[in-house]
């Protein structure tokens, strides 16, 4: 029955209920209940794509497994009559405002007995820049429910370290997290209450709250990431899979909150087959053969048989990604089985392990979970973005690709320093914008990086480049005393910006495997003074050329036997890491070439294992007031207590900056700069080399 209409049970209805109760299995058979996911208010505009067929598909599958029908609203106007067809209405981070009639319909729907699930994100998450984020959208009609979303952007907190109330919402919840959302403010404790709270260090506040309004119920959630399964827009960026994270109980939280909205008991809807790896964090050395213990639990009163457990390296869960499989003949009701997963990996990396448990006799018992295995010290790859380099705004696929291969990716937003490169294995620099070149202190930082045996990739620009200039790279090569330069390729003319094919030559550094052709942007060529290079103790090999050509486009310089202390440097006249080169797929020879290049240039001992400087050490980046200190340029977009949100100049990414000003002063300053281009001087927290938070800010028009 929908909309919780009260129905008197007659004799036939009673017989029907008895038949349903006799149905075996942990999740009850399909009840006549229905859930509506909204997708008519730009829920799909964000990179995570919070829809029942995108990033929230696993959440939707859980609801189906609980026995309820799931539908999606793609373009229907929200009316009370429309909502009455459903027991629960889910709003996963809407990005356009509901009109007043729709807002009134939602409130009346809840008052009359409907269930409403509001899922927000941090303040300022305005994906379409119309002035309305999910926080504002919900707050426009949430007051009758006795709560509102705070205008905040809280820090990542996984697991949440505040108080967890012991009630039906938190049933079997030990760990849950936020990846930077907001919290709820309780306006009327008589009808609304919090259940899970953030730590005081993160500002406190209810991360999850519920309300009883009229005959209906409301769940309010401060972050969209915990229910995100990571299957949204894969061309956008590496996405959080909070839903299947084995270190969190977000799947259980989804069940609990849905049971609240349906006025059911969560213990009647158990996760049928649950698993975890013993020992918490999984670690091994490259090349080491290990067995990791997995515990599989049957949480039902029914025996299951013929269960298949598959193990994959990351998604997609396809045959080519699978590396091991096992079969469980039977598992009794309530039984725990301890199984062993054999594992060996030769390359150092953070190995993302996806595990699927499938049960042929009851598909609602299927479950997926992921965790990671640290194989040695993972490689840290650093891409310079400070010098307005060409193509740096077109590397969405690169970020996905290196992450899926267990390589840590980071990009700079300010001038390079020893501190920035401290834990970096391989640095990549694309041709800077014309007129820009690396500052002397940046060159020194690169020299120090290279003398530690770490890698460097220089990517030149070709005739189709938008604004890159090879003069900056050639100047850098001179500063490094390397007798090489990037020059115009005599055999290539402008190609209109289309991807260009290159031939991979046989070499000792980057294994080509069974492919000989890769894609890239329009090329320059590499010119080398072989006599001078040999005098310095360097050797080199040609890596890539245009098909049928002998003119080098890509080379690797090997200084391991020179007196410079340098190891390997790759010079590429073409950028092979752009979205165009990837052709929007990570399953290409170009991707394998890029990964093998990074691995070939990385030192044997991971830079990430190096000790960070202790608090109080000299700040290589300089004080925030120093004229050469690191800075961001961007458009001032929003203000919240203790922080400023700007749209980063060039990459269109929202950045949160802690400004340290008192409330009155900050509001005055923000009024001067809202919507204007500003320069923000930054001083990183000295105790955290990889932090994204800053405690100093300079306001300038």
How are the elements arranged and paired?
Layout: H1 11-22, E1 34-38, H2 57-65, E2 69-73, H3 80-83, E3 88-92, H4 100-111, E4 115-119, H5 134-139, E5 147-149, E6 156-157, E7 178-179, E8 184-186, E9 192-197, E10 206-213, E11 216-221, H6 250-262, E12 273-277, E13 282-284, E14 290-298, E15 304-313, E16 322-331, E17 336-343, E18 349-359, E19 367-375, E20 380-383, H7 396-404, E21 408-411, H8 418-421, E22 426-430, H9 440-451, E23 455-459, H10 470-479, E24 484-488, E25 500-504, E26 517-520, E27 524-528, H11 530-535, E28 539-545, E29 554-558, E30 568-572, H12 579-582, H13 589-601, E31 631-640, E32 643-648, E33 654-658, H14 663-673, E34 677-681
Parallel strand pairs: 1-2, 1-3, 3-4, 4-11, 13-19, 20-21, 20-22, 22-23, 23-30
Antiparallel strand pairs: 5-8, 6-7, 9-10, 10-11, 12-14, 14-17, 15-16, 15-18, 18-19, 24-27, 25-26, 25-28, 28-29, 29-30, 31-32, 31-34, 32-33
Structural key phrases:
disordered N terminus, alpha/beta, Rossmann fold, seven-stranded mixed sheet, Class_I_gatase-like, 701 residues, Immunoglobulin-like, 4 domains, signal, nine-stranded mixed sheet
Describe this structure in words.
By secondary structure, this protein is of the alpha/beta class. β22 (426-430), α9 (440-451) and β23 form a beta-alpha-beta unit. The chain is globular, with a radius of gyration of 28 Å. The protein starts with 10 loop residues before the first helix and ends in a 20-residue tail after the last strand.
Q: What distance separates the N and C termini?
A: 60 Å
CATH class of the largest domain: Alpha Beta
Binned, the helix content reads 10-25%
Low-pLDDT parts are: 3-31, 611-630, 683-696
Number of domains: 4
- Helices and strands: which structural class? alpha/beta
Strand content: 25-35%
Mean pLDDT: 84
Q: Categorize the overall geometry.
A: globular
DSSP, total strands: 34
Oligomer: single chain
User: Mind telling me the CATH superfamily name of the largest domain?
Assistant: Class I glutamine amidotransferase (GATase) domain
Radius of gyration over alpha carbons?
Answer: 28 Å
| Major β-sheet profile | 9 strands, mixed
What is the level-2 CATH architecture name of the largest domain? 3-Layer(aba) Sandwich
Here the CATH topology of the largest domain equals Rossmann fold
Q: Give the strand order, joined by hyphens, for the main sheet.
A: 21-20-22-23-30-29-28-25-26
Output the number of helix runs: 14
